[in-house]
Amino acid sequence: MSRSPNPRGIIARHVAAALLLVAVVGCAPAPDANDADAAAGAPATDDALAPLPPLPDLDTLAPAAATEFETRAARVTRLEADARSGASGRAWAWGELGSLFHAYTDFDAAARCYANAQRLDPDDFRWWYLAGHLTRSQGDFDASNHLLQRAAALR
User: Fold this and answer.
1) Which residues fall within 8 angstroms of residue 15, CB to CB, at 6 or more apart?
2) Under the phi-then-psi rule, with left for phi > 0, alpha for psi from -120 to 50, and beta for the rest, what region is 139?
3) Secondary structure letter of residue 33 according to DSSP
4) Cβ neighbourhood burial of 135 (10 Å; 0-12, 13-18, 19+)
5) CA 46 – CA 39 distance, rounded (Å)
6) pTM score
7) In this predicted structure, what is the pLDDT of residue 6?
8) Each residue of 106-154: pLDDT tens digit?
């Protein structure tokens, strides 16, 4: 005899996952857009960055969510256009946008943003951690374990 899933439990898990995303990404301050990477002349490994994913239909979102998408996408665009922007500041902007896509279950867009953040700042555990949870939610447990182990090694 199988039981049907409890809708309240499913919703509660999704809300908990979204809150976890906000907590992990939101706990760290935003790096200075002109951080030490730029000052030291360190090259950002951005030759393989994925393009900015299309935003969801903003008219279907709550006004605060639509504003957040617009703000985060604009930050990515602004930092990518500024040659003085450092890699860690750019990574942070990509990761923040990715976490918003993740919370709104656009997993392909979130994965693209997390991958860009990882390329730009491979030593920041957050982007590996969030990508690990993203792949886990999609059922790719091998990839998830690899990503989460990488995050733990960096922490």
Assistant:
1) none
2) left
3) T
4) buried
5) 17
6) 0.72
7) 55
8) 999 999 999 999 999 999 999 999 999 999 999 999 999 999 999 999 9
pLDDT of residue 3: 53
Tokens of 28: 């760290």
Query: How close are the terminal C-alpha atoms of the chain, in Å?
Result: 44
Alpha helices in 27-121 (DSSP H): 36-39, 63-81, 87-103, 107-120
Contacts 24+ apart (CB under 8 A), 148-154: 150/125, 151/125, 151/126, 152/125, 154/123, 154/124, 154/125, 154/128
Which tokens hold the place of 130?
A: 């969030």
Coil, helix or strand at residue 36: helix
Structure tokens at 60: 């279907």
Amino acid identity for residue 47 in this structure: D
pLDDT value of residue 21: 46
Matching residue, tokens 């360190």: 42
Confidence at residue 48, expressed as pLDDT on a 0 to 100 scale: 82
